[in-house]
Amino acid sequence: MNYWISVLFRIIPLAMGAICLGYGWYIWDMGSDANTYVAGHVVLFLSIICVALFTTAATIIRQLIHTYSAAFKVALPLIGYVAAAIGIIGGLIFVRSGTGAEHFVAGHVVFGLGLITCCVSTVALSSTKFILIPSNSKAGPGHHPDQAFSGGMVALLFAIPIICALIGIVWGIDIVRSDETPNVVAGHVLAGIGLVCASLVALVASVVRQIQNTYSEADRRFWPWLVIVMGTIDILWGLYLLIFQYSPVTIAPGFVLIGLGIVCYSILSKVLLLASLSPRQAHSPHPGADGSDLPVHRGLPLRGGDDQPRLHGPGPGHGRPWRDLLHPVLHRFHSGKRHFQLSPR
Question: What predicted TM-score, i.e. pTM, was given to this entire model?
C-alpha cells in the first residue's frame, strides 16, 4: 500500500469525527429546546464511532505498511474502548441526571452509540493479528498459525459484541413497552442499535476465524446472512412504524431504524470481503473448475531473463494468442464448454 494513501485512509475517519464533534456542538448551542438538545448530543457523540473506526483502520494499515509496533498494538484498541466508555457512561449520566424527556431520549441513544463504538473497537482488537490472514490463505485449511489468538481471547472477542447486542435489544424492548413518547422513541432506537451490534458480531467473528484459520464454508454462509437478517429487521421495523403505526411519535424512530438497517448492510460489505479472502474448502464436482487446469504458465518471471510471460495452450506451439485467451473464458464460464480443448498447432 502506498504510504500517502494509507495516511489518507487514516485521516478520513478522524476528519468525519471532527465534523461530527463540531457540528454537534453547534446544534447543541443553537437553543435550549428539546429538539436541539437531542440532535446536538447524538451528532456530537457520533464522533466516538469515528474514533473507533480510525483505530480499526490504523491497526490494519500499519500492519500492511510494516509500521505496527507493540505500542500501537495496545494503544489503538485502548483508544477505541476509551471512546466507547465515554459514550456509555455519558449516556447513563444523561438518563439519570436529567429531568426532561430530551435527557431520557438523548441519554439512551448516546448509550447505544457507546455500544456500537465498543463493538467497532473489538474489531480493532481482533485485527491486531490481521497480517496472519494472507499467510493463512496461502497455507490452506488445517494450518493453525503459531501466533493466533488463544482460546480464551477468542471467547472474549466473541463475547464483547454479543453482550453489547443483547444489552441494546433487551433494554430497548423493555423501554418501548411503555406508551410514553420518550420511551417509544428511545426504546425503538436502542433496540435497533442492538441489531447493528449483532451485525458487528459477524464482522468480529469473520476476522477472528480468518486469523485462527478456522473459517469454513458454514462461516461463509452464516455470517453474511446474519447481517442481512439484522439489517432487514431494522428496515422492516422502521417501515412498520411509518406505515401501520404512523403518528408524530413514531416518525423519528421509524426513519432512524431504516437508517440503522442501511448501516447493517454497509457492514455486510466488509463481511463479504473477508469471506472472499479465504479459499473455498469444498471441492468442485467439475475437474479443473477451480482454474487449476487453465492454459496459463504460472512460473515465468515478469521481468528479466530470457523467458517472457506468455499464455500457452494445452498443446505445443505458439501464436494466435486470442485462442489461448478464449479457451479459459469458455472453460470457466460456459458449462457446455467445460471440457473444450484446443487442437495442437
Answer: 0.80
* Residue listed under C-alpha cell 413497552: 177
**Is residue 316's pLDDT more than 60?**
no
Residue 278 and residue 272: Cα distance in Å, rounded?
Answer: 11
From residue 306, give the alpha-carbon distance in Å to each of 36, 177, 319. 72, 77, 18
Q: Determine the 3-state secondary structure of 258 from DSSP.
A: helix
pLDDT tens by residue, 190-238: 999 999 999 999 999 999 999 999 999 999 999 999 999 999 999 999 9
Assess contact for 32 and 103: CB atoms under 8 A: no
Nine cell digits for residue 344: 495442437
The whole-angstrom separation of Cα 267 and Cα 232 is: 13
In this structure, what C-alpha cell is assigned to residue 324? Answer: 489461448
The C-alpha cell at 256 is 432512524
Q: Which residues contact 142 (CB under 8 A, 6 or more apart)?
A: 213
CA angle 88, 90, 94 (to 5 degrees): 120
Task: Give the Cα separation of 20 and 302 in Å (integer).
Answer: 48
Integer Cα distance of 8 and 13 in angstroms: 9
3-state secondary structure 37-73: HHHHHHHHHHHHHHHHHHHHHHHHHHHHCCCCCHHHH
Crossing angle between the packed helical segments 70-97 and 34-64, to the nearest 10 degrees? 170
First to last CA, the chain: 42
CA distance 183 to 150: 42
User: How far is residue 228's CA from residue 271's CA, in Å, rounded to a whole number?
Assistant: 11
Cα gap 28→41, rounded to integer Å: 7
Question: What phi and psi, each to the nearest 5 degrees, are found at residue 311?
Answer: -90, 140
Return d(Cα 226, Cα 162) in angstroms, integer.
13
